[in-house]
């Protein structure tokens, strides 16, 4: 990385920190995580091999949950699992490869998961990426959006039937968002431009997705923590396990923040949400092509 890129990265990190300080609000000091056993529950945690993901998995393991550590880094995931098993005595911790930036990897993960697992109670989309450089995957997705939105979108979509069957919950890890953050559905793969706000745009897309899931009768929540990995894990666990969590809710440090200045107005744009869902289905290969064709023909009066 040359000096220009280093300088730009430093500015980006400064802006992230500054934004968190400017928007900082008192979170819940009583963010207690349920002590009840999770024995018999199956939970997927993406990005479980490092940082916040390790802490999330560790706490779930302590509660006797069966945890699927969905990880890309082979060395880190083996070490992480071994450490968690040693600390908790819970051997029901499964490591499975998942690179959320690759849609083919997401599909392979789900296929293998369905072969070995009969149920899914909670999906925690924890994996995320920040980059100031435009990078494309082999599948022609821009890397930040692939990691922070398209991969989780497809993963959740492919697991919806299992989640509905168990009345499960989806927790998406979000970010504090500038109120000026906007989405261009024609630039989701960075077809037109790539800039610093790309990370925020991907997190805005994820928040819109969270609310759309709620409309489609899936228990879901979007959570943000501006603290350490340990405290960040507690915010995620709160949204994953607490009965008071409002479906479709946007939580910052355990505090519900919907309809406050912390949430861009576009989050509540139903037209944008519908378009985002349709475009995302098409780009990830999940759209109902025949259904769309019939609908188009029906509009033209060619079929009943």
UniProtKB/TrEMBL annotation:
GO terms for molecular function: oxidoreductase activity. It comes from the Eukaryota. InterPro entries: NAD(P)-bd_dom_sf, SDR_fam. The keyword Oxidoreductase applies. Keywords: Membrane, Oxidoreductase, Transmembrane, Transmembrane helix. The chain crosses the membrane at residues 6-23, 143-163. SUPFAM superfamilies: NAD(P)-binding Rossmann-fold domains. Gene3D superfamilies: NAD(P)-binding Rossmann-like Domain. Belongs to the short-chain dehydrogenases/reductases (SDR) family. This is Retinol dehydrogenase 11. It comes from Magallana gigas (Pacific oyster).
